[in-house]
Amino acid sequence: MADHYEVLGVARDASVDEIKKAYRKKARQLHPDVNPGADASEQFKLVTHAYDVLSNPQQRQKYDMGDQGGGFDGGNFGNFGDIFETFFGGGGQSSRGPRSRRERGQDALLRVELDLEEVIFGTHREIEVDTAIVCETCSGTCCQPGTSPVTCDICHGTGNIQRAVRSLLGNVMTSSPCGSCRGYGTIIATPCVTCQGQGRVRARRTVAVDIPAGVETGLRLQMPGSGEAGPAGGPNGDLYLEMKVRHHDVFSRDGDDLLCTIEVPMTDAILGRTTTIKALDGDIDVVLKPGVQSAEVITIKDRGVTRLRGSGRGDLKIGVHVVTPTKLDHKERELIEQFAARHKAPAPSLSHFQQGLFAKLRDRFIG
Questions:
Q1: Are 242 and 299 in contact (CB under 8 A)?
Q2: Could you read off the pLDDT of 218-231 as tens digits, one per residue?
Q3: Of 308, 287, 264, 290, which Cα lies nearest the Cα of 120?
Q4: Does the domain spanning 252-361 belong to CATH 2.60.260.20?
Q5: Does domain 4-88 have CATH number 3.40.50.1820?
């Protein structure tokens, strides 16, 4: 067997830098892409092997003490990154250790339907969730109680299998996940019979949530750690609650304001009156001034939706709709004709088209 120092052309007390410099010089001369000769290919393998041994302090010490094999069993490729550095300007990537069975659980998304009344001040809900929870039998260990994972006898706990592969640069050590333990480094010899070795089971559980006031359709609330339990006792994912506000037959919403329409008989519109309406959070006295017109808006301060961000509440805006009677008896018609004769109103005339808030009130809020 050729002497490694002679192959590289360096003294036995050469420094690491001198060995690396000598190796790079010879590797450039003998690399198959540069020198396609069969003899050059064999010399390149010898140079690479010599460098791998002498550049590794432990392997070099063994070699100097008489171990002429130089550890040519896969360990001598620990500095293979220097070969890549020589020709490609980068280092090789070392193999990873065994991967963990514990993984984060998946996030979950649920839709929560709310009434408009609940949106005003917020509400508390107990939500039933069908999800994955930690197995109570094994507490997430995946093993039958009283047992534990055993070290894989194929990869010896590393989770990886190394193989020597011939390439243009000589023999290269490759690393791939162990097929026996799937890269975990351990094997569940006696899986938990309840969860089948998963560390979690499907179950229904109750999640308590305080839904703040002011939410609207499409808004999502995040509840960290309330999602599915992860495999092998891994941390829970997050739970997202998507709000859906139901349609209300009377009230609609415009931001933090509530909108509704009050139908006023023609006589009340003329004479004025005070009436009581039932709002979502209690009764409200509404004053109709004499001569109130259709499409006028009466604003009741601080009787809208509680603001999600900030403080206070929006307003309740009431659009007035004056109802004109369509069926009159003979006496009622006489009275109206007498009123018209005394009032002497001007003839109907055209004016600029107005599309204000009252037009918006006709579009009911769809939750």
A1: no
A2: 999 999 999 999 99
A3: 308
A4: yes
A5: no
